[in-house]
Amino acid sequence: MIEENEQIQVRKKKLTALKERGVRTYANDFFPLHTAAELHQRFAAATTEELEKREETFSLAGRIMSLRYFGKAAFFHLQDRSGQIQVYVRQGDSPPEAVTLLKESLDVGDLVGVTGPVFRTRTGELTIKATTLRLLSKALRPLPEKWHGLQDVEVRYRQRYLDLIVNPQVRDTFRKRAKLTQLIRQFFIERDFLEVETPIMQSLAGGALAKPFITHHRTLDIDLYLRIAPELFLKRLIVSGVDRVFELGRNFRNEGISTKHNPEYTMLEFYQAYATYEHMMMLTEELLVFLAQELQGGSRLTYGEHEIDLTPPWRRLGMVEAVCEYAGLSAEEIEREDVVRAKARELGVLPYAAAPLGKVIEELFGAVVEPHLIQPTFVVSYPVEVSPLARRNDADPRFVDRFELYIAGRELANAFSELNDPEDQLQRFLEQLREREAGDEEAHALDEDYIRALEYGMPPTAGEGIGIDRLVMLFTNSPSIRDVILFPQMRPEKK
Fold first, then answer.
1. Which of 10, 74, 257, 379 is the most buried (most CB within 10 A)?
2. If you classify domain 166-314+375-483 with CATH, what class do you get?
3. Are residues 166 and 144 in contact, defined by beta-carbon separation less than 8 angstroms?
């Protein structure tokens, strides 16, 4: 078998021979007017006889994905952005220069332009009879072996361009992702939300509990942070009178990489004045059912070994009650800090030493409850210590009016009734500073300008963030976040 480097040398020799014959090897004057999918759709019901009577010719451009010779004839499949169609070249039926080009110079992977009429082969496959065949770009590297394709996960993520060439299901995933974001915009615009853009480089890393990436602006001579969330800027807009606002954009968090986490990811955040987190629950149910209907044709979908039913209303589960159930604690024991900390140590949950009780409960929840939440579940009543931007619950101020949405054992959304009391917000920020001093690197910074904005008056508001990458994972049945990000973060290749 010819080694890959030898195959590359063979292809380079073909390219040199073409140049020596005066052939334009990287032409830029062929303009396709049709696509493979367009022809398949147009002639799906046309008979062999009907096609033979047509005198129309068609022009397509794309990549050669397979190549078969049968004596004086050859067939190859051309792949463009819409799919594949077969092309036929035969000595006597096609121009001599097309036959010579295919026989002597073309390989699987080359980009070509084709012109000709359509017909059906004896097996019934719609095919273009080449009356023009042009080389547009020579592929110097061979594509992965036909029958096994590109299987190495590391190579697939690192060389996504190659993954998209040879794996149709990967192209379908990213088409569905694009459709999903278009539908989200449609959903919110129809409900009178304004789409905006807020800063990605920020002087304070705010809006979430996460560790930021730091950069430096030379002219201003200040450190800036890649945003961990757009929340505080969007709520400034609520103060300004923009009562319904949303943003689809990138967030950056300096955290681990896993099947659920990528340091750079896409987030949807939306805020509505004169609403509560209860309204956000209903809006979230509406949004996901709408997406399911448009993308799947119904409210049920398969994820891994589970069938997920998105039919509202969804289950609601208190965080403390959930931890009691799955960690084996009683209602009395969950109130005792020494018992909760002992249970955390027993289960290997080890937050920083000075972590408040609410933080320990949240960590226990992530370890023992989260994997069991397969069907859509709103987890409610979060401890105030882990919710510095959320409104306290009127009945029990130890907790806030907040929920997180879990589906298939994974968090998809986080929402709450917003804290609009500037004095309470200031005290929460100051408590976060104390948590930072105690060792919590993800504690929230003090944003004095945000306090000033609240002092001008923010209407009662509810807001929510939804991770788009995880949402795409759900709707494409993808096990890893890297499957739905075109270019996920990877370690540099070893030289």
1. 379
2. alpha beta
3. yes
